[in-house]
Amino acid sequence: MIIRILLIFLFLFPISCSKKKDPIYEIKPKEDAYKIYNEAYIAFEKGDYFFAQKKFFEAERNMPLVKFAAKSAIMGSFSLYSINFYDEAEESLDRFLKKYPANENTIYAEYLIALIYYEQITDEKKDLNPLIKARKQINYFLKKYPDSEYAIDLRFKKDLIINQIAAKELFIAKYYISVKKWIPAINRLKNIVNNYDKTIFIEEALHRLVEINYFIGLEDEAKKYAGILGYNYNSSDWYEQSYKILNKNYNIKKKRKITENKNLFKKIIDKIK
User: Fold this and answer.
1) I need a surface site. Which of 36, 50, 210, 233 has the fewest CB within 10 A?
2) Between the CA of residue 171 and those of 41, 124, 206, 216, 258, what are the distances in Å?
3) Contact of 58 with 36, CB cutoff 8 Å
4) Tens digits of per-residue pLDDT, 178-199?
5) At what angle do helices 66-82 and 33-46 cross, to 10 degrees?
């Protein structure tokens, strides 16, 4: 009787257990990184940079090869830059340079950082720091990669920055002149003469130095700056104004205006026809 009960129990137990399935643990394969990259690139081409950057960084995390992971990362950074997410773009580029220091795109990463600083320049009359930061990064790049394909663009931007800094100095100098703070004004103007002499503001800066020095009784200093202005820019209107200050009897020669001769233009047009 006992044996029969045991046999029944053994027979029923597997059946009752079979009703409860053992858990199956499936290993989910990594998503195809190249497929993700292609999705990102298509979005990038369409101008959907926000979605593109998300997918590029996802592709980077899944890429089996370092070379393509780095490419995904730099494209993600460029996508962030394209939507003016400058802080996030700079952070991702710094990470790129640390993670992939030997990658061929490091030069482009550093170029992008320079552009990020440059793009954040707003009004030089309000804040000079973005100008200084941009110039520093551009100088660093040009020193490191003087012959790169990006050097021409950054040299042009550097010239613009230098002109903006000089404009700021002249703006401050004029403020000091307006409130008759002669020494601070002279110092600002001298800074332009000594450090920004290739800018478009050098002529006015020299004239203002003539003007201030003559006004406060430093005639020799006024003549010195007038001499520099005359030697380098003798056809400048600023030189004529400075000469007038030092020579009261001098009559400024008015430049002849080129008047439009309608009949002459008509004859030329008729000939072209």
Assistant:
1) 50
2) 46, 10, 14, 21, 32
3) yes
4) 999 999 999 999 999 999 999 9
5) 20
